[in-house]
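Anyone able to model this chain together with coenzyme A?
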Amino acid sequence: MSATMRSMELVPFKQKHIREILSWIKSETDMIQWAGATFVWPLTQKQFREHLKAARLEHPTLYPFALEKRGKIVGYCEISDHRRRYNSAMLSRVIISTRYRKKDFGKFMVKQAMQYAFGDLGLHRLGLGVYVSNKSAIRCYKKAGFVLEGTLREVVKVGNSYWNYLRMSILRKEWEC
Ligand SMILES: CC(C)(COP(=O)(O)OP(=O)(O)OC[C@H]1O[C@@H](n2cnc3c(N)ncnc32)[C@H](O)[C@@H]1OP(=O)(O)O)[C@@H](O)C(=O)NCCC(=O)NCCS
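re: yes, here you go
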């Protein structure tokens, strides 16, 4: 592991960082690419705080994380939709601060989240969804070990166009290899 990666860690997300995350999302298109239909534009801190309530349930379905580099937040992601009965969850709302992209931080964060999902939560399956046009995210997920499951055609309307959506997943046995 490089010195840069050694200076980074995935930690539980703190609400005081919401403003920082929102500053990385400049438009409705950015928001949809990042979070699908979770939020309504304009994205507010209130919406984000509401969304995070699922992390405080007696049996949480959401685990929000910050990627920190020497204490400074540079990324955010979630394990969401935790279904205890099926040992499955989703990797969601993955984002790296604009100025830190294309430096392998995304791949590092995804791998750390997988460690939590399979190692700590004991999951059998971790899924995700990503829009077809999002080449950097798809490459990042493939590099981390996710495999393609299929395409949902023209599921959201952004401006005048409809976006296709890919489903990907990784199973425990694939993560263990
Ligand atoms: C998707 C995202 C998290 C990736 O993070 P990142 O730190 O830039 O990704 P990495 O540097 O770890 O790159 C992973 C791979 O993707 C490649 N990649 C990065 N940007 C790319 C681009 N624009 N086009 C093609 N490949 C790209 C990298 O080269 C790397 O592949 P490699 O190991 O073969 O070199 C980041 O771009 C982001 O925050 N995007 C906005 C929010 C978003 O779309 N989130 C995904 C929601 S599903």
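The chain has a mean pLDDT of 97.
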